[in-house]
Amino acid sequence: MKQENMKIIEQKMLAPNIFEMTLEGLIVQEMLVPGQFLHCQPPTRSDLLLRRPISISSIDLKTSQCKLIYRAEGAGTKDMSQLSANETLDVLGPLGNGFPVEDISEGELVIVVGGGIGIPPLYEVARQARLRGAQVMAFLGFASKDVMFYLEEFQALGDVHVSTDDGSYGTNGHLGIILDEILPQIEPSAVYSCGPTPLLAKVDQYFEEHPRAYVSLEERMACGVGACAACVCQTKDKKTKKMRLKKVCDEGPVFATGVVNI
Ligand SMILES: Cc1cc2nc3c(=O)[nH]c(=O)nc-3n(C[C@H](O)[C@H](O)[C@H](O)COP(=O)(O)OP(=O)(O)OC[C@H]3O[C@@H](n4cnc5c(N)ncnc54)[C@H](O)[C@@H]3O)c2cc1C
Ligand code: FES
């Protein structure tokens, strides 16, 4: 883990209030697993003391660059969205345990299931799965066509199924409708998911006993490094059924299915 002022290479608006920020720095060489996050300091607002956790959406070790995709929602992320190329962003990371991808092998079917602003870390998962020769299927849910992003990027890696809550693109309704239709017909070797709680609960239920299925939680955080307990979630040991509180920032954000009380 490092703290670094990363150089902003590009800041691009992908959809209203959704930004893609390309960052360059030494810290990228430590990003070996998808699903980890950077804890970002709002750049100009000295009154905002807490960093904002944002997932790493893609990693390029060759150029020492990575990308973040984030929604400018509250004060801190709005502040981040004002930055331009050649400025810097103070980050701490890479933090958290990411998605295990090293056991993906050629020919396997890998599925990623993401909703809204939970989709970004799944792009690097899908990219690494494809590099390992797996067949990738992506299930992506958005509020509407206007706020869709990265569709072509996912389509370049495999089959993509999309739903929008308002029916403006793809299946009309929530992603669970597509999951209920397609999941009974396929047997994925590995499953990776990130997004709103009801979506994670659905994936967790479907794949509770699957040995390679994972959900990533986006719990509210303060320190991001395991020191303050702001981010605890309730988990159970799969064998003993004993309940235990775990810190999402350093014991997660990625957990195996069947473990977290979602
Ligand atoms: C591991 C992880 C990865 C994330 N990845 C992404 C991502 O890739 N793209 C993206 O747009 N968002 C992501 N989020 C959510 C993002 O961190 C929050 O939306 C953001 O921190 C809100 O800050 P704000 O300044 O916009 O809002 P404010 O309301 O000003 O934030 C106030 C405080 O609440 C915390 N907070 C508010 N909402 C959330 C939330 N949903 N999750 C965690 N903390 C929150 C903030 O960190 C801050 O400390 C992620 C969250 C976590 C925990
Ligand atoms: S945010 Fe402080 S322990 Fe997780």
In short:
This is Dihydroorotate dehydrogenase B (NAD(+)), electron transfer subunit. The protein is an alpha/beta fold.
Order of strands across the biggest sheet? 10-9-8-7-11-12-15
β content, as a range? 35-45%
Helix content: 10-25%
Based on CA atoms alone, the radius of gyration comes out at 18 Å
Structure description:
It contains six helices and 15 strands. It has helices spanning 75-80, 120-131, 151-155, 175-182, 197-206, 248-251, and strands at 2-15, 18-24, 37-40, 52-60, 65-71, 88-95, 109-115, 135-142, 158-164, 171-172, 190-194, 213-216, 232-236, 243-247, 254-256. The longest helix is centred in the middle third of the chain and has 12 residues, at 120-131. It is globular, with a radius of gyration of 18 Å. The mean pLDDT is 97.
Could you give the topology of this structure?
Blueprint lengths: L1 E14 L2 E7 L12 E4 L11 E9 L4 E7 L3 H6 L7 E8 L13 E7 L4 H12 L3 E8 L8 H5 L2 E7 L6 E2 L2 H8 L7 E5 L2 H10 L6 E4 L15 E5 L6 E5 H4 L2 E3 L6
Parallel strand pairs: 7-8, 7-11, 8-9, 9-10, 11-12
Antiparallel strand pairs: 1-2, 1-6, 2-5, 3-4, 3-6, 4-5, 12-15, 13-14
Flavin-adenine dinucleotide (FAD) binds next to strand 4, strand 5 and helix 1.
Features of this protein?
six-stranded antiparallel beta barrel; binds flavin-adenine dinucleotide; seven-stranded mixed sheet; alpha/beta; 17% helix; 15 strands; single chain; 36% strand; Rossmann fold; Dihydroorotate dehydrogenase B (pyrk subunit), domain 3; 262 residues; 3 domains; 6 helices; binds FE2/S2 (inorganic) cluster; globular; Elongation Factor Tu (Ef-tu), domain 3
